[in-house]
Amino acid sequence: MKNIASRTAMALLLAGLLLFGLLTFFIRYFIFSDDWFSHSHSSDGLSVERVLDRGGKVLYAPKSDQTYSKNAAVRRATVHLVGDTKGYIDPLMLRQYLPELAGFDKINGTYGMQSGTGVVELTVESSIQTVALQALGSRKGTVGVYNYRTGEILCAVTSPTFDPCDPPVVEDGDSRWDGLYLHRFFSAAYTPGSIFKLVTTAAALETIPDILDQHFTCTGSIKVNGEVIRCQGGKAHGEQTVKEALANSCNCAFAQIAQEVGPSVLQRKAEQIGVTQSLFVDGYRTRAGSFDLTGADKNRVAWAGIGQDVDLVNPCQYMTYMGAIASGGRAALPYLVRRVSSNGEERYRAEPQRSQIMITRDAAEVLTEFMHNNVVRMYAPVNFSDVKVCAKSGTAEVAGSNPTSTFAGFLDSEKYPLAFVVVVEEGGSGAASPVAAAVLRACINVMYAESK
Ligand SMILES: [Zn+2]
């Protein structure tokens, strides 16, 4: 009897273990199967037939004789999104949708899985991509533009780039090709320079009740904690309101404003707009920036408020903050893939999602007027007569080379709700705004044509 009882117990134990194992498998299967699927196939091996831009032009068709666009400029402007056949660039965006592309289904498995039947429709427009790349010229950098109402990215360009039909031979240490296989818009983080004054200004508007009545004096330089902070060219801006200080991009005034805001509020504001977080954009996890004023002295707080400290910002994330100012607090989150279909059947369609609240509505309204004032007074290239542009430029000092030029903002427009960011590495002061002007014009033309 004892023998039978122990055998029964053993059988029950084994049955229990089997049941537990099966349950664990099914739970994990339902949670992770899309991931397993995505990682078990290379993107060009199976299911992508075509990748189209927002106008329906073919950017990538691995199963056809013509793998890429016939236009070399389009190939160079989009290779980082669709990947190259040599595998230097991981097409994260396509990988994200491999289950949908192949018609993968949790219940039925890979039903209807045929070679080359998946179609991916992007939100970017190849003609805008090429305008952006041309405007950057041979300089390194990135350009991003998106619709802050819907989240559609119209332009996401990175430079340097290459033609996938004629890839360069890259020698180790050749600085011309630094970061060649990286999409800077998603995967880089930069010293923001004075575009960060838009974060300091937001913090001041939200927390200092009489900030609009205050005046800040600039004599060209200011001593903070024994160290001198200068305005560009040592120019003395005199007495200014915060609005004038922003238009002048006055370092001396912003050193004072940053002290008044204080490190903990500035830190909280940077975190609230997501500087230190990543965004997920169709397979891309944006590089988190950094902002840490723990234990910072007054001098560091001043430099952080000016945008020249150790803080780093990701371009895509900062563009989203521009969208949030334009939208009165929360922006649509950016995305690249509009639709995925397999065997002619729709498997995925993007739906707009909104960011967390980045700025109060009141502060956003005031900042919008400040940023438009910047454009009218300072940025001739984007001072369009027909659309209200709001922006801020920045120049980030880089040891031993020409400074990086940044430019960020948005169109305050019902018809053209676009937010943008431009970075021109080693471009020198003022290099980014003409690039923005060319790209915004191209975006407006495309959206105008689409509305007809
Ligand atoms: Zn000044």
Would you kindly provide a written description of the structure presented here, covering whatever features stand out?
It contains 14 helices and 16 strands. The protein has 452 residues and is α+β, with helices and mostly antiparallel strands. A five-stranded mixed β-sheet has the order 2-1-3-12-13. A hairpin with a 2-residue loop joins strand 7 and strand 8. Helix 5 (126-136) runs antiparallel to helix 14, helix 8 crosses helix 13 (361-378) and helix 9 (251-261) crosses helix 11. The protein starts with a helix and ends with a helix. The model is unreliable at 40-45 (pLDDT under 50).
Summarize the structure.
The protein is α+β, with helices and mostly antiparallel strands and 452 residues long. The protein contains 14 helices and 16 strands. The chain has a domain at 186-451: 3-Layer(aba) Sandwich (Beta-lactamase), CATH 3.40.710.
Residues in helix, % = 25-40%
What is the class of the domain at 186-451 in the CATH system?
A: Alpha Beta
Provide the list of bound ligands, each named once: zinc ion
**How would you name the CATH homologous superfamily of the domain at 186-451?**
DD-peptidase/beta-lactamase superfamily
Mean pLDDT: 91
**How widely separated are the two ends?**
87 Å
Which radius of gyration do the C-alpha atoms yield?
25 Å
Assign the CATH architecture of the domain at 186-451. Answer: 3-Layer(aba) Sandwich
Count of alpha and pi helical runs = 14
**CATH topological fold name of the domain at 186-451:** Beta-lactamase
Going across the biggest sheet, name each strand in turn. 2-1-3-12-13
Which regions contain 5 or more consecutive residues with pLDDT less than 50? 40-45
